[in-house]
Amino acid sequence: MYVVLNSSHRSHAPLFEMHRGERLPPFECPARLDAIAAAVGKLDFVEQVAASRFDRSVVETVHDPAYVEFLSTVFDEWQAANLSGDLLPHVWPARGLRGDRVPESIFGRLGYYSFDAATEVTSGTWEAVWGGVEATLTATNLAWSKRAKAFSLSRPPGHHAGRDFLGGYCFLNFAAIAAEGFRNLGADRVAVLDVDYHHGNGTQQIFYDRGDVFFGSIHASPAIAYPYFLGYEDERGAGKGEGANKNSPLPDGTKWREYERELESQLDAIGVFSPDAIVVSFGADTYFEDPISGFGLQTADFTRMSQRIATLDLPAVIVMEGGYAIENLGDNVSAFLQGWVGPSR
Ligand code: Q9C
Ligand code: ZN
Fold it and tell me: What's the distance, Cα to Cα, between the start and end of the chain in Å?
């Protein structure tokens, strides 16, 4: 198993997060990845590889180039206007407002290119996010050329970011970038399986009308959990993508027994789709002690999960999404990586 670290991840260090009416230290913070990197560095089956350089071409296929430009320049613009602190959007175009025009004002544009106020843009956000792109594409190239498994060890996460919006601690969608990267390298069909506690609304949106990329997700029902406005079972894809989107929403309190049933159902659907490569959006926030989530998985369940996914026997990129129980993150991610490298592989 290859591991590619985003060594720029610490450049994204948000100041605070609004949580249940309180201003708290952010759950999505550099200590998360430092804990994972320390644990993964001790695994004997891991080969660490440095990230290579890439241009914007793959990124600008899955994201609107104007959004990418906004993300890469907005903090400098903010500072040039003598504004201080991090950038946090606070107004959005709900139904009945004009969601089709990009405002001139920096505050208007922040609202246009986002869907929540949980996702601060900081001085180093772009540097960290670009490091994530390079780790992701390096992992994708390795997985494809060596028919191997490669883990992109990176933060901030990506699966809530859509074609032209940030949100849910995410800015660019690394799962989508990996899937598009596999397509560029010659894969005809790619499956993305999202096992984060939260629905991967960004990845679903990006591929919703495409028949070449399957998106499957197991997550807490949007009726009760973030991101609230996408992730129901009746979202099955549109146009050429009809049937290539599969949501498995579950109630809070879900443990391995119930989770496993949905995983088998997702793996069956992926088998029918018959992809040439797979991308896994891995979140350790399904862990029973996660501070912002409600599932009941145990550390050993993460090994069971990846053992099942590994039976697909495909080139695989694993991208890191959520997981906020920092004390257990190293063990949980290690347990997930362990399941990919059983004796038969
Ligand atoms: N402060 C991922 O796990 N919640 N994102 C915002 C509570 C956002 C989770 C309200 C949760 C985002 C990648
Ligand atoms: Zn999550």
Answer: 10
- Give the ligand at the shortest distance from the Cα of 286: 2
Give the model's pLDDT for residue 343. Answer: 52
- Please, are residues 70 and 64 in contact by the beta-carbon 8 Å criterion? no
196 ligand 1 Cβ < 6 A: yes
CA of 168 to the centre of ligand 1 (A): 5
Confidence of residue 345 (pLDDT cuts 50, 70, 90): very low
Ligand nearest to the CA of 220: 2
Given 160, 198, 199, 219, the catalytic residue: 160
Residue 189 contacts by C-beta under 8 Å, 6 or more apart in sequence?
212, 213, 214, 273, 274, 275, 276
Q: Determine which residue's CA is closest to atom 5 belonging to ligand 1.
A: 168
| Residues 6 or more apart in contact with residue 119 via CB below 8 angstroms | 89, 166, 167, 168, 169, 170, 171
Which residues have their alpha-adjacent CB atom under 5 A from ion ligand 2?
196-198, 283, 285, 322
> Does residue 321's CB lie within 6 angstroms of at least one atom of ligand 1?
yes
Catalytic residue status for 198: no
Closest C-alpha to 123, from 74, 168, 171, 56: 74
Question: Up-side HSE of residue 137: CA atoms within 13 Å toward CB?
Answer: 20
> What is each CA distance from 337 to 44, 173, 250, in whole angstroms?
11, 21, 24
Residue nearest ligand 1's atom 8 by CA: 168
Give per-residue pLDDT as tens, 293-335.
999 999 999 999 999 999 999 999 999 999 999 999 999 999 9
* Structural contact between residues 327 and 299, judged by C-beta atoms closer than 8 angstroms: no
Tell me the pTM.
0.98
Angle at which helix 299-310 crosses helix 256-273, to 10 degrees, equals 20
